[in-house]
Amino acid sequence: MRQSRLARSTLTVSELAFGAAGIGNLFTPVTDDQAERAVTAAWDAGVRYFDTAPHYGLGLSERRLGAALRDRPRDEYLLSTKVGRLLEPADADGTDLAAGFAVPATHRRVWDFSADGVRRSLADSLERLGLDRIDIAYLHDPDDHAEQALDEAYPALERLRGEGVLGAIGVGMNQAEPLTRFVRDTDVDAVLLAGRYTLLDQRGLAGLLPLAADRGVGVVIGGVFNSGLLAAPRPGATFDYATAPDHLVARALDIQTVCERHGVPLRAAALRFPFGHPAVASVLVGTRSAAEAEDAAALLQHPVPAGLWAELRERGLLPPDVPTPARER
CA-to-CA distance for 38 and 52, rounded, in angstroms? Predict the structure, then answer.
């Protein structure tokens, strides 16, 4: 699997990244053994970038990912986690399903983008992971906390990067415009953009991606299937975790028809599309099983001919100015 440098940083990422929300019991339970086998399958396929967060399963994702990576050569992979939500013990009964995770509600999430909160979050993450370092720390969803994230959390991460504690600083969000502000006003190394640079939604191209390329900021793209619609388009499919409107279902089905005409699975085209932009270093796919890890790696290797992108443009299914991959692989 191809590896590339994360823009101006010294870090190298695999073009496919392992998103570990699934092994934190996102929506449905996963066993410890299934989680370990998912990480092993991704590793065997060449994945060397793994992403997690305290938010995912109230720390379960970090614990499972750390356990699965603990005996791997530490200098052979990149690990990212996130700051902005502290986990505080809670006495609540029931599960965390309201937040999307099938785990006991043993903790509650507390937003905290203070400098002390950042340091505590990273210390807690290292303890759960059981590893010696975190390579990339992302500010996680600072949409409603942008000022504190800019004034307190980012400077704290900058100090840790300067001390060599962190390899890189990133920001991860579902919206492109707020990320653009962080790229413009700070010296972040990377952004993780979810769902806003896909075959159906190219809002990241308006300002964020060109600015990231100009400033040497690496881009990781998540949510390439827009939570389901680009994986299996049909009425009732989800787009950004809600039922997709009819016009988007129709558009996704039209894209799928073009893909089929060129002998390309829709999911393969969705995975390959972001690499048309030079700022994109990696595509992150949420993975919960060995089969899903193997499938994502195989799809990413599937040839996508230039004629497919050309036909999507001709049919108005992609904007005429959107960059597309120049090579089949």
Answer: 14
pTM score: 0.97
> Per-10-residue mean pLDDT for the chain, 329 residues long?
88 97 97 98 98 98 98 97 97 89 96 98 98 97 97 98 95 96 97 98 97 97 96 95 96 98 98 97 97 98 97 97 81
DSSP-based three-state secondary structure for 111: strand
Look at the block and give the residue holding tokens 């640079």: 197
DSSP readout, 14-47? ESEEEETTGGGTBSS---HHHHHHHHHHHHHTT-
Which helix or strand (DSSP H or E) is residue 89 part of?
strand 85-89
Decide: helix, strand or coil at residue 320: coil
Q: CA 48 to CA 198: how far, in whole Å?
A: 23
> What CA–CA distance (Å, rounded) separates 12 from 78?
7
CA end-to-end span of the chain, whole Å?
A: 11
SS3 226: helix
Q: Is 154 a catalytic residue?
A: no
Supply the DSSP symbol for 244: P
Options 49, 56, 77, 138, the catalytic residue: 56
